[in-house]
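Researcher: Re-running this chain for the archive, since the previous output was lost when a drive failed. Same request as before.
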Amino acid sequence: MNYLYQKLIRVFTGIVELLFPSVCLACGDELVPGEEFICLYCLMDMPPSNLVSQPNSNPVMDKFAGKVSLTGAASVYWFDKHTSVQALIHQLKYKQQPELGIRMGRLMGAEWKNYSPDKQRFTLVPVPLHPTRQKRRGYNQAEQLAIGIGEKTGFPLASQALRRKVNNISQTGKSKSSRWENVKQIFECPVPPEGPVILVDDVVTTGATLEACIQTLNSKGVNDITVLSFAAARIEKG
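Model: Regenerated structure tokens:
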């Protein structure tokens, strides 16, 4: 009976996969066995930043220089328009793909382990969404990334360390000064994390949201903070 049940499950699964094949969430091509959410071609297409190897001195870290108490900052990929990175982040934020966030987080965790193997234990703190927005979306994309990072590194997750107390409007399309005004004093830290922290987000653009998070953590005595994002907007050279 058990054998028959398992055989029926396999047949049913095969029919479902035939009718609704798993596709790459970046390009839409059908995935082959061993691929998960992202095909190999799109993985190879994502522009690596190579910043995790130098978290203390790089263009992302420079965004926060002299503004907050921060140990390091890095992104795993560059955010370029019309690339796999942009497509994946769009799917994660707007297309109800929480498991994709965990897959992307595993990529981040693997990159971190490549350059910081077993040197220090961090606490993962995701940039929070306002409860209203998180309820509407069903999950916090930064938290999903942090879960994936934790799977690869073993670092604990502190989802309640930061809380967004104001449901501010989206940052998309805002200038740098407008972004900062939009996020001032919107976070609180009800449960300060202990030890060094990795602050997790999906994309670094101007850094305004992350800066507000860091200031909130700093106000609670948390100063050993490293920012880690999936991607970062390329820094324009002046």
